[in-house]
């Protein structure tokens, strides 16, 4: 998938701006506060329905305005799609695909597979399990089409169980729903486990490129104890505890991807720069696996490419991005990056200044 054109209306510091990126490397250059990250954020909205920065969606709407609107024209397998995303201060969201309103964000997201790398991406390793589940589920969502509907059903049943637990009504009605919750929960786990098994060789290959000095291992923890033969058994065993807490403590919503370097938790062993390299490898590996399994390409968004990487590793990352033959958006204070790392390939440089975009 390639973005042919992108238009931003009243998004952050952009009043009305557009760009026609190249199919390859696009460098977004500009001073601090010019709007580089905001530009990446606007693309990210199509793939995730939200920003990657903290704060409410209201902060994305330009000050003094009622709504922002984003348009993108994409090209995939010789078909063009027109996508629209609008959010208003009153919370209303409008999605459009090819001139029709689209009720489901998941359908828009399927059109725009994205991998994001920012200085904050190390939270994938340092942060809680939710970050790693989101990472993993991006892959499962884009590769296994039944995953999303299973996840929606599971979330509904989980909400219902939690409400019964809170109201201490589980003993009256809960047993029946638990079996359904467990069946769907097990299916979600199977899809994740099968994904990680197929994905593991890609991970290993890329990690050797970026961090050859460590021996990494990855283990997907299902979200319930191995001492239980099934999720149904775990839910049954934990019902008294769950009633006390008022929520469900076992299930795929508690899964985690354990990442070990030389047998130790990666977050306690690696330096900040090494964590960034690990995350870089994780993101690139997921993009490669996605391409090999679906014959589609994702778009890479790289904010502040030079942050925390030495020159050798910056060059490695750039060469991996070029090799991916995907569309890439990288931000940098200076366009010098283009000459240093991307001079051999066709690339576009866009200058951003106070929310205005000009190409070279
Ligand atoms: N809702 C908004 N309305 C108007 N301006 C905004 C809004 N939200 C943020 N801004 C401004 O937009 C500008 C662009 O911020 P952005 O983070 O995109 O810059 P950047 O070019 O990535 O900067 P840096 O190089 O420092 O990371 C900032 O000056 C910020 O104050």
UniProtKB/TrEMBL annotation:
<dbReference type="InterPro" id="IPR003395">
    <property type="entry name" value="RecF/RecN/SMC_N"/>
</dbReference>
<dbReference type="InterPro" id="IPR042174">
    <property type="entry name" value="RecF_2"/>
</dbReference>
<dbReference type="GO" id="GO:0005524">
    <property type="term" value="F:ATP binding"/>
</dbReference>
<dbReference type="InterPro" id="IPR027417">
    <property type="entry name" value="P-loop_NTPase"/>
</dbReference>
<dbReference type="GO" id="GO:0003697">
    <property type="term" value="F:single-stranded DNA binding"/>
</dbReference>
<protein>
    <recommendedName>
        <fullName>DNA replication and repair protein RecF</fullName>
    </recommendedName>
</protein>
<dbReference type="InterPro" id="IPR001238">
    <property type="entry name" value="DNA-binding_RecF"/>
</dbReference>
<dbReference type="GO" id="GO:0000731">
    <property type="term" value="P:DNA synthesis involved in DNA repair"/>
</dbReference>
<dbReference type="GO" id="GO:0006302">
    <property type="term" value="P:double-strand break repair"/>
</dbReference>
<keyword id="KW-0742">SOS response</keyword>
<comment type="similarity">
    <text>Belongs to the RecF family.</text>
</comment>
<dbReference type="GO" id="GO:0005737">
    <property type="term" value="C:cytoplasm"/>
</dbReference>
<feature type="binding site">
    <location>
        <begin position="30"/>
        <end position="37"/>
    </location>
    <ligand>
        <name>ATP</name>
    </ligand>
</feature>
<keyword id="KW-0234">DNA repair</keyword>
<dbReference type="InterPro" id="IPR018078">
    <property type="entry name" value="DNA-binding_RecF_CS"/>
</dbReference>
<dbReference type="GO" id="GO:0009432">
    <property type="term" value="P:SOS response"/>
</dbReference>
<keyword id="KW-0235">DNA replication</keyword>
<keyword id="KW-0238">DNA-binding</keyword>
<keyword id="KW-0227">DNA damage</keyword>
<feature type="domain" description="RecF/RecN/SMC N-terminal">
    <location>
        <begin position="2"/>
        <end position="356"/>
    </location>
</feature>
<dbReference type="Pfam" id="PF02463">
    <property type="entry name" value="SMC_N"/>
</dbReference>
<comment type="function">
    <text>The RecF protein is involved in DNA metabolism; it is required for DNA replication and normal SOS inducibility. RecF binds preferentially to single-stranded, linear DNA. It also seems to bind ATP.</text>
</comment>
<dbReference type="GO" id="GO:0006260">
    <property type="term" value="P:DNA replication"/>
</dbReference>
<keyword id="KW-0547">Nucleotide-binding</keyword>
<keyword id="KW-0963">Cytoplasm</keyword>
<keyword id="KW-0067">ATP-binding</keyword>
């Amino acid at each position: 998938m390639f973005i042919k054109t992108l238009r931003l209306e009243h998004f952050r510091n952009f009043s009305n701006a557009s760009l026609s990126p190249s199919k390859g490397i696009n460098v977004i250059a500009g001073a601090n506060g010019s709007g580089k990250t905001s530009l990446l954020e606007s693309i990210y909205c199509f793939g995730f329905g939200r920003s990657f920065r903290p704060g409410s969606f209201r902060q994305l709407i330009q000050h003094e305005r009622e709504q922002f609107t984003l348009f993108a024209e994409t090209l995939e397998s010789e078909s063009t799609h027109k996508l629209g995303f609008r959010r208003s201060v009153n919370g209303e969201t409008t999605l459009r695909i090819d001139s029709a309103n689209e009720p489901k964000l998941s359908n828009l997201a399927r059109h725009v597979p994205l991998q994001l790398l920012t200085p904050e991406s190390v939270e994938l390793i340092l942060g809680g399990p939710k970050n790693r589940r989101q990472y993993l589920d991006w892959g499962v969502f884009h590769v296994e089409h039944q995953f999303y509907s299973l996840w929606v059903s599971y979330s509904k049943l989980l909400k219902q169980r939690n409400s019964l637990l809170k109201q201490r009504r589980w003993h009256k009605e809960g047993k029946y729903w638990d079996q359904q919750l467990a069946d769907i929960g097990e299916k979600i786990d199977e899809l994740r486990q099968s994904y990680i098994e197929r994905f593991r060789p890609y991970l290993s290959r890329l990690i050797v490129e970026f961090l050859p000095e460590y021996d990494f291992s990855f283990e997907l923890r299902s979200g319930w104890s191995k001492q239980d033969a099934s999720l149904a058994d775990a839910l049954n065993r934990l019902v008294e505890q769950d009633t006390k807490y008022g929520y469900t403590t076992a299930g795929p919503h508690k899964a985690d991807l354990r990442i070990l370097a030389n047998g130790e938790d990666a977050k306690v062993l690696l330096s900040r720069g090494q964590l960034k390299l690990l995350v870089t490898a994780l993101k690139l590996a997921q993009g490669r696996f996605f391409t090999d399994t679906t014959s589609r390409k994702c778009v890479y968004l790289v904010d502040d490419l030079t942050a925390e990487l030495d020159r050798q590793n910056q060059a490695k990352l750039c060469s991996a991005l070029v090799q991916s033959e995907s569309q890439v958006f990288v931000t940098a204070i200076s366009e010098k990056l283009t000459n240093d790392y991307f001079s051999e390939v066709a690339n576009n440089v866009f200058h951003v200044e106070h929310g205005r975009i000009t190409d070279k």
